[in-house]
Amino acid sequence: EANLGQGAPDVFLLGLLSRLDAMLGLPLHLLLADLALQDDIRGLLLGESSSRNPVALLWKIVLAYESADWDTALELAPLIDLRAETMARLFNASVTWTSEVARV
Questions:
Q1: Which end of the chain is more exposed for a tag (fewer CB within 10 A), N or C?
Q2: Cα dihedral across residues 24, 28, 34, 35: positive or negative
Q3: In this structure, what are the phi and psi dihedrals at residue 16, rounded to the nearest 5 degrees?
Q4: Per-residue pLDDT reduced to its tens digit, 46-80
Q5: pLDDT score, position 2
Q6: Model-level pTM?
Q7: Average pLDDT rounded to a whole number, residues 32-43
Q8: SS3 for 39?
Q9: 18: burial class by Cβ within 10 Å (0-12, 13-18, 19+)?
Q10: What distances in angstroms separate CA 47 from CA 33, 60, 81, 91, one per listed residue?
């Protein structure tokens, strides 16, 4: 739905790893050091990537949306043909999924 094609698994991985530092109480760069990640994924997680590929753009949209930076989210969304309604629905679905998984 976010028009990522083959990039969807990368976004899922980004979401899973994005708060690893908060969960484990260690710096993210140390936690990622021993993981076999693509350089662009590692760069996105560490905030070092300026790529404008669809995965990077969606990641920037997610970060903007999470921090209530609506202007940035709405500005970037059309670059990957993502509608505001879809963005809100997908974000809510991800929060629901996370809550359900955390209860297990």
A1: C
A2: positive
A3: -65, -40
A4: 988 777 788 899 889 989 999 999 999 999 999 99
A5: 66
A6: 0.80
A7: 91
A8: helix
A9: middle
A10: 15, 10, 23, 20
